[in-house]
Amino acid sequence: LFSVLLLPIFSRMIKLKDSVTGMVKLSFSLLFTISSIVAVGSFYYSEDIMTLLYPLHTEESGVEYAMRIDPSAFIYAVLMFGLIAMASNYVFGTLLTANGNLRQLNIVAAVGVVISLVLNFTLVPRIQATGSAFASVSAHSVICIAQVIMAVIIFKLKMNWNYVTALVIFAGGIFVIGYLSLSLSQNWILNLAVMVSGSFVLSVVLRLLNIKQFIQIIRTG
Fold first, then answer.
1. Which of 108, 198, 206, 215 is the most buried (most CB within 10 A)?
2. Contact, 81 vs 43, CB < 8 A?
3. pLDDT of residue 5
4. What is the DSSP letter of 158?
């Protein structure tokens, strides 16, 4: 859905030879903020989330249940960090698609498939599902980095170090907020809600999240 919304906007801007820097920054900030909060929240509360989704079986002991849930929680936490790369791909992949760089995107996708296959064949026999999770995140990350580099080169996007610094501070900040939220109360759902709320506040303070401006651009686009 996000790509469907962005594609005509990017296409129109490219056709009119308008600068896409502002729109890329705005859309990336929105998706990076949301996906990072989800990933970090899943990292700290993976066991609670998996326990909620998969309750104890009647014939299952506590030890057996822990042996089933703990690995699943870890795999879930790893996979959710791949969401950040996937969200970034929606922005830069859509931008490159609007510009007609399909050949380059196909090459990058093919490289990602090869990396995924190699890592799966290497890691799965050793660490099973955990290896597959790491392979997935690695492949998505490589594709993301490649698309960002392509976009920077093709569209001559300039590096805004203040913006990069804000992203780094935000990434570190939500880890701190997530860690502190763990000891707020005995109710993990309440703690997670506080973590999410605090993270969104941090994104606003750092001027990363501007939903109002994004909605305005969608309407006018």
1. 108
2. yes
3. 80
4. P
The label of the residue with tokens 């990336």 reads 28
Spatial CB neighbours of 25, under 8 Å, sequence gap ≥ 6:
160, 163
Q: Which residues contact 96 (CB under 8 A, 6 or more apart)?
A: 104, 105, 147, 150, 151, 154
Burial call 157-186: b when 16+ CB within 10 Å, e when fewer: beeeeeeeebbeebeebbeebbeebeeeee
Query: What's the length of the chain?
Result: 221
Q: In angstroms, rounded to a whole number, what is the distance separating the alpha carbons of residues 82 and 133?
A: 9
- In the numeric block, which tokens belong to residue 156? 């001559």
Query: Over the range 59-93, which residues count as b (16 or more CB within 10 Å of their CB) and which as e?
Result: eeeeeeeeeebeebbbbbbbbbbbbbbbbbbbbbb
- Are the C-beta atoms of residues 108 and 146 closer than 8 Å to each other? yes
Element (H, E) at 78: helix 62-98
**CA 80/CA 77 separation, integer angstroms:** 5
pLDDT (tens digit per residue) in 128-149: 999 999 999 999 999 999 999 9
Residue found by looking up tokens 């790491």 in the block:
134
* Structure tokens given for 22: 């502002």
* Chain segment 68-98, per-residue pLDDT in tens: 899 999 999 999 999 999 999 999 999 999 9
3-state helix, strand, coil in the chain (%, to 5): 85, 0, 15
